[in-house]
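Help wanted!
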Amino acid sequence: MPERPSHHLPEPDRPWMMRTYAGHSDARRSNELYRKNLEKGQTGLSIAFDLPTQTGYDPDHELAKGEVGKVGVSIAHKGDMETLLDRIPLDQMNTSMTINATAAWLLALYIVAAEDQDPPTPEKELQGTTQNDILKEYLSRGTYAFPPGPSMRLIADTIAYTVEHVPKWNPINICSYHLQEAGATPVQEIAFAMSNAIAVLDAVKQRVSQDLMGSVFGRISFFVNAGVRFIEEHAKLRAMAVLWDELGRERYGVEDEKQRRLRYGVQVNSLGLTEAQPENNVYRIALEALAVTLGRNARARAIQLPAWNEALGLPRPWDQQWSLRLQQILAYETDLLEYPDIFEGSKVMDGLVAELLEGARDEMHRVAELGGAVEAVDYMKAALVESHRRRWQRIESGERVAVGMNRFTSTEPSPLTAGADGGILVVDPEIEAERKAALEQWRANRDQKAVDQALATLAQTASDDDENIMPATIAAARAGATTGEWAQALREAFGEYRAPTGVGEAAAASSEEVSELREEVERVSEALGRRLKFLVGKPGLDGHSNGAEQIAVRARDAGMDVVYEGIRLTPSQIATSAAHEGVHVIGLSILSGSHRELIPAVLEALREAGAGDVPVVVGGIIPADDAAAMRESGIAAVYTPKDWNLNAMMRDIIELVAARYGVNSAVGA
Amino acid sequence: MLNLIESRAPDAREQAAALLAEVSPAALGHEAPAHIIGVTGPPGVGKSSLLSQLVKHWRSGDRSVAVLAVDPSSRRSGGSLLGDRARIEIDPKDRRVFVRSTAAGTRLGGLAPATRAASEALAAAFDVVVIETVGVGQSETEVADAVDTVAVVLQPASGDVLQFLKAGIMEVPDVLVLTKTDLGPIAMRAMADLRAALLALGATETEVCAVSSVPPPQGIAQLAQALEDHRMRVDLPKRRQHARRRHALEDFAVEFGERGLRALGGRLQAERWLEQQDPALDVPSLERALTDRAERRA
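Answered by r_m:
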């Protein structure tokens, strides 16, 4: 074979790990889906857990209502985990688990399931990743369970454990992904993720011997985002690689260059995907995939791509296949993998990287001055809410173009959404009942004494800060304890936590943008006798609060008194707040698909609390049929991602209040 | 009911005044039996966690509790974000707990105009009424004029507060609460500093309570007892009369401004005149009396 010229690689690179973020309902159904996906050429697994599993509740807990099996698979004990991984050889599989607050527990279940599999796989051979990044849960994603201190300890414990016993496991995936979803600019995404990594590494340093720090550093991976501005996004990853190398060398004394290499997996941007003309999202996803593959020096190790219909609801297997094929075309049909880094020597790329580095270093410095990422959660959260507010403002003003949404909006009807299912997956509502019954049976058939014993040991371990939580956690998993029991034992030891909402600090919109709204609010408030009071509530376990936060901030800017209490509220908490606070109108936000169960529950609770006559509007990822049904059941209005103009929404809300309380004529006179 | 009290609409104000008259000492024949407590302190010292624990404690003793949280977020564009209630954990199904948040007045820690009236009304229906405000140096003075017992909440290393106290910028509260005592040695040190400062000021009656709200909570029962002890010591009718008179004068000043005060012969003279009025009069009646007097003198 003739020698290839030097601008080619001698051998093309191996493709990255290809995954699809998948899982729904129960273990059996998800296992079928995984095995089908692997047949289609997927090379790793990416497990999506439902919200109760992610936040440490069993399917029969009050907070789990409506959420069981919705955004992922429900896993309550080792039996579920064994079913989930049935006939998937774990000695060969590389499994990524999107799990954070309960990461130690799910890792334990995975370890136990592997030793129970036939043939068994010892823990030292297991490969995969637990996301295990709690700070971004406080900042953006919302599936935290415990306060910052104990949460950081759990993370440090899992790292200290895996580095010795499960050496091929990535115990943490520091996520910049969700920061971008929460509105982070590229500079913030880099700086906050790096600061977060520092907080984790500093915590681990206390718990492992210094000679292991190199291996620890080498096993920390990142989970990043890539938006449609794909040149800048690629520069962002190169900048992260520079900072990571620097950090390893200077702060942690890591000598092995290989251990200092930035390793990252990616799920490209969901924030920019539109509900309007959803087929266009396919192009966006393809361009975003380029951001993380184009330059060899900062190429992703693992990729999972969202589906075109994410802004509509849950993707079906076919939608996910379409996304997987994109990866395969990029890796196997194009010549992408045949070249060395194509940006080397590019003035533009180097300049962009330098610019981002400068900004990121400044921002990291600020976080360090506040005492590090754990102490700076409030600051970072407020900064993200503020960035998101500005981003949204640019979309509303048309400065930032979203094709099909704020420009080029005339369209033919889309055949993709014309089918009977509306182009999305709907989880069987019977799953929750099925799961509850199965759990009851599991509890009845296990050795209760062994479970009690294991949980008592776990509680004791939790209260002793010097012990590693993992051995007791693995023992509890083996004994047959449940997700909710494990988390409850820790909640009792650690206490619970509510993350900051970040909305109080957001800057006000410039007055000309909202001046008309303000006049309206003043007029209506004057007629009402007191200021228009608006409750923004997030019922259920869904932690995606970015939308609710923006609405709260805009309502304040429009002059309303806004009651916003953050995420994870039960229907009765929302109803009690509405009654105590004497609000004029309620807005509920749900993105997890649990609106069918939760909205009626909130309405019922409102009636019980004597606030049944307060008008309610709903926002979220809500299919058209469900929206129609809701309006019939008394919901005043339903908003979905296509209603991106917040001022228009505010106008509706003011009008709604005016009409309901009959104040129009009083003022008009 | 509170919707009514907060309302500025004329007919609502009349109804609110009627309501307050119903719960006035004149109508009840005695002061409302509730214990009205002010809880104030700088942001971030753990007031809400502390209140969560206190509410739990009171409820376990079957006392009903109302909390008026004056939210620190300043008003912008006339609107406000009220997120404070989120941090006070209550059982939503418990009908004998009530939490209402209001935006602060124009100053940091300033009471919202309707907060005093609301506390007076709630005092007729709940065993404990708490007004929670944020700030230091001035907020406790303003709260002191509206409550029976003022508790100032501090955390270890709040050196500036200690300085305020020593310098007399801040009035000595009835109870001082030191949070986050799980911090250990720094907390011990802070306790010692506080005690020394109080001693130097001759404030021997002020109790200092150390609490920790992280599990397992500590010092909550002792704090509740200290609050209760203060209430037993204080001359309640006198304090409440004083509060109502201050309240009436503040409302009058908001309504009629400096000009109105001049018509009364100045603030000091107005205060003296108020002292001679029937001690059982409710605030709206006192306000009417002030207004009549100003008109007669104008």
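OP: Thanks! One thing I noticed: Residues 347-369 of chain A form the longest helix (23 residues).
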